[in-house]
Amino acid sequence: MRNRSGRVEGMSLSDAATIAMPTVDESGLSGQEVAQRIESGQSNKVKTSTSRSITDIVRANVFTLFNGIIVAAMVLVLITGSWRDAVFGFVIIINTGIGIITELKAKRTLDKLSILVASDFLVHRDGRDVAVPHDEIVLGDLLWIRSGEQVPADGHIVRTWGLELDESMLTGESRTVRHKEGEQIYSGATAVSGMALIKVNAVGEHSYAATLTAQAKVYTKTVSDLNKGINTILKFMTFLVVPLCVLLIISQIGTVGGWQAALATGEWRQAVVSAVAGVVGMIPEGLVLLTSLNFALAAIRLARKNTLVQELESVETLARVDCLNLDKTGTITDGGIAFSKLVMLDSAEQHPGSGRADAGHAANSIWDEHTVLQALYDLSNEENPNGTGQAILAGLGERGYQAGAVAVRVPFSSARKWSAIAKSLDSAHDLIWTMGAPEVILSALDGDYTDILTQVNAYADDGNRVLLIACSRSNVPDNFADDPQLDPSSIPVALVLCAERVRSDAEATLAWFREQGVRCRIISGDNPVTVGAIARNVRLTGDRAPVAMDARDLPTDIDELARVLENVDVLGRVLPNQKKAIVQALHTGNHVVAMTGDGVNDALAIKEADLGIAMGNAAPATKAVAQVVLVDSKFSHLPDVVARGRQVMANMERVAGLFLVKTVYSALISLGVVLTAIPYPYLPRHITYVGALTIGVPAFVLALAPNTRRYIPGFLKRVVHFALPGGIATGLSVLCAAWFLPGIMGWNIAASDADLAALRATSAIILFLMGVFVLARVAQPLNSWRGGLVAFFAAAGVIGMFIPFVANFFALQLPTGRTLIATLIALAGAAVIFFICLFVAPHVARLAEGFSRRRHNDMKS
Q: What InterPro entries does the annotation carry (predicted)?
């Protein structure tokens, strides 16, 4: 059916475009000009390489300080031929493999980064339209932008046939925008209706989308407080290990008669193995491995809940987040608009002025709600309805409404702010229905409609998009379709309320964050009044009304911005660079900031945040720079994400003390061995056996236990305070046994290998007992499965000594006779030392803290 405007009802412009494109005056570029521009690099091709090659990734993970120390120690042991004492080296293979695989996965993600959808586009060249790939669009091309296509390059509009763009990925503004001839449009926007011919003025890496992509693709690694603490320990141990290793070798050579005797008899091998025992014990290699494995396991668990963790270290950041910036569209709302309801107005009776009361009553008799809803459906049923029109059609379609007969149609125009249709009433009259912006329509009507405007503003303040329907009973002018004018005699009939669809899980998720002490803010490119209303609806701040602000009023100074943000909950009209500045300002207040988003306009802020969270339907650039992607775009997954991070960090802090106890006692024993020139009291394989049963495996189990305590910075300080008492007690116990047992037992450990083996076996038993004590302290409370865990590994260590293969491989000996008595005495002494250290440590810590506080106050005064 053809209407009076000359268009075919029910056919979209994009459909028409596939049948016959509009004619254009220009012929476009010639084939020779295109070839020249491609050759000169003026095409739309963008490089896709990241800043880190595969070689860089492998080098960064293989050549680390930790790996260097362990490899050097392992090589020294292998040179001596004692391969059993080199089993500690396997940990670097596992740890390095995890790191390389993870970063290669991140590299693939970054390499695939592209804001633009790769597809063919229609260009006008040599006087005809041809389809070309995205990369073959060149500077100066005449490019068709059709409904449903993403703008592939920047350009200005030459001609437009109602082009309407969704620029939310670029600006954050969820409303679509209609552009006029001569206006600039940018790559990354999506055409939702109409079509246009544009002249390309920026391509490739010079286009807007590619510029954002280039900034987003710069490789950055998540800063991990846990890894920083471990690296601090490694750096400290490096300064200690190298000279201590040399001193240990020298002291051990001395115990076998000096260099000449050691080289002649081959005793130098045992001296090297003994020195490595001290060095390896000081390196918390298990902690490095457990950290990587625990991060990876957390990522796997989150993946089962449709949450993709792209950087393992970001799991730790989850635990520290205290400030969450939420993008409204795509996070709080699902990005769509829904028809809410129709509010009928009785305007004819309230405003009968200008002699129009009769017409008003005549119209009022035929505009019952059903009739108005049918008119609303027909008003929205344009060739290319915008987002609001689509929402109305969907909502009324569910109620059974279908397209009715329309005599004349005036499509919606962003310039007019209204649309209209004419329906035949009888042989002599038509009904002209108008729908659009209330303030525009009412200003053109006869009468005073202040009360309706007040009603409109009240609905708008509640977050609704409000349209007005007016109706007049008159004949349709012949030129109405070409030169439409509002009939001043029209009567306001109803208000149409539409609103963004709020996610059903948004309110409960925000309540969880409030309970957990995480401050949430909504940051959007939309109107602050609308965003503020949505924030109230989802109870962003609980019982307190959220404070909304227009971002155009924000200060540019970062420090001043930080002060303003402390009292603001909602920000509207936020530009992409402002989102980044907001994150930077929150950082000045020592906040750990998480940022959610789905648009290209969010990419830079997500990258600036400590933790970037992208929705699954986000732009590719946004997903690529985010550390976490909610694959199914469900905001309700965020509590699981944060809780998993808290579990990892709280438990890692708990078990890190186990590893540092070994570092402390190894350093103390090595120092005692050097100063007193005694043989090293145990072998590397002893530390491997004891460490596996009292540290490594139990730590892994404990690290998986539920724990939702929010992480507080200061990991290293707290862990060191825990590790010092246990480490000192263990070190003193082993040294006392090494100093006094040979005299008591009559062992000649310098001349007899059997006596030295007996001492080392006894020292290994002491290490094991002290390890069980430390494990019991870490696993508290013991009145649950944790107590069973300690008992199990204590029993496993004892049983292992009775298994011949295990005992031979790890050089374990069961004490008998006088050796058993001496061992029991040593164990009793070790237990006494352990509990004394535990009792003394808190008092020493309080004294040190008091002294530090007094010194600080003295300096201030």
A: ATPase_P-typ_cyto_dom_N, ATPase_P-typ_P_site, ATPase_P-typ_TM_dom_sf, ATPase_P-typ_transduc_dom_A_sf, ATPase_P-type_domA, HAD-like_sf, HAD_sf, P_typ_ATPase
Distance CA 86, CA 273 (A): 9
- Please tell me the total number of residues recorded for the chain in this structure: 861
Residue 861 has pLDDT above 60, yes or no: no
Q: HSE on the CB side for 141, CA within 13 Å?
A: 34
Sign of CA dihedral 763, 681, 809, 661: positive
435-450 b/e with 16+ CB inside 10 Å = b?
A: bbbbeebbeebebebe
Beta bridge partners of 470: 434, 492
Take residue 683 and report the two structure tokens written for it. 């072998």
Domain 14-40+117-216 annotated CATH 3.30.930.10: no
The contacts of residue 178 (CB under 8 Å, 6+ apart) are 162, 163, 164, 165, 194, 413, 414, 415
Q: What is the pLDDT of residues 81-115, one digit of tens each?
A: 776 767 667 766 776 776 677 667 656 654 554 34
CATH hierarchy code of domain 225-299+650-860: 1.20.1110.10
Report residue 539 as tokens.
Answer: 């109870």
Task: Give pLDDT, residue 51.
Answer: 46
- Check if the beta carbon of residue 649 is closer than 8 Å to that of residue 226: yes
Residue 124, C-beta contacts closer than 8 angstroms, at least 6 positions apart:
24, 26, 27, 28, 141, 142, 143, 144, 197
Distance of CA 166 to CAs 132, 150, 171, 381, 726, Å? 23, 9, 9, 19, 63
Amino acid at 831: A
Calpha distance 626→15 (Å, rounded): 37
Nearest Cα residue to 810 out of 820, 802, 821, 822: 802
Question: 286 burial class (0-12, 13-18, 19+ CB within 10 angstroms)?
Answer: buried
| Residue the block writes with tokens 């590719």 | 620
DSSP 619-658: -HHHHHH-SEEETT--GGGHHHHHHHHHHHHHHHHHHHHH
Instruction: Report how far residue 144's alpha carbon sits from residue 137's, in angstroms, rounded to the nearest whole number.
Output: 11
Q: Helix 638-676 and helix 684-691: axis angle, to 10°?
A: 150
- pLDDT of 734: 92
Determine contact, residues 196/180, Cβ cutoff 8 Å.
no
Distance CA 604, CA 121 (A): 28
Among residues 700, 770, 721, 728, the alpha carbon closest in space to that of 287 is found at 700
User: Do 610 and 320 touch, CB atoms closer than 8 A?
Assistant: yes
What element of type H or E holds 159?
strand 154-166
Report which secondary-structure segment, H or E, holds 388.
helix 387-398
Q: Which fold does the domain 307-332+504-633 belong to in CATH? A: Rossmann fold (3.40.50)
Of 816, 780, 810, the C-alpha closest to 797 is: 810
Residue 20 sits at φ, ψ, to 5 deg, of -155, 115
- DSSP H helices, 40-160, are 54-62, 65-80, 90-111
Helix (H, G, I), strand (E, B) or coil at 520: strand
Known active-site residue 111: no
Structure tokens at 494: 């109803």
C-alpha dist (Å) from residue 436 to 161, 440, 497? 20, 8, 12
Residue whose tokens read 């552009």: 179
Q: Exactly one of 327, 569, 610, 640 is catalytic; which is it?
A: 327
> Coil, strand or helix: which one is 737?
helix
The SS3 call for residue 618 is: coil
**Cβ-contact 346, 368 below 8 angstroms:** no
The DSSP 8-state label assigned to residue 489 in this structure reads T
Q: What is the pLDDT of residues 228-253, one digit of tens each?
A: 777 777 677 767 777 877 787 788 77
The Cα 555–Cα 532 span in angstroms is 20
Alpha carbon distance 80, 93 (integer Å): 21
Strand, coil or helix: 119? coil
CATH label, 350-481, candidates 3.10.180.10, 3.40.190.10, 3.40.1110.10, 3.30.565.10: 3.40.1110.10
Q: How far apart are CA 722 and CA 448, in angstroms?
A: 77
* Residue that the structure tokens 């019991």 belong to: 776
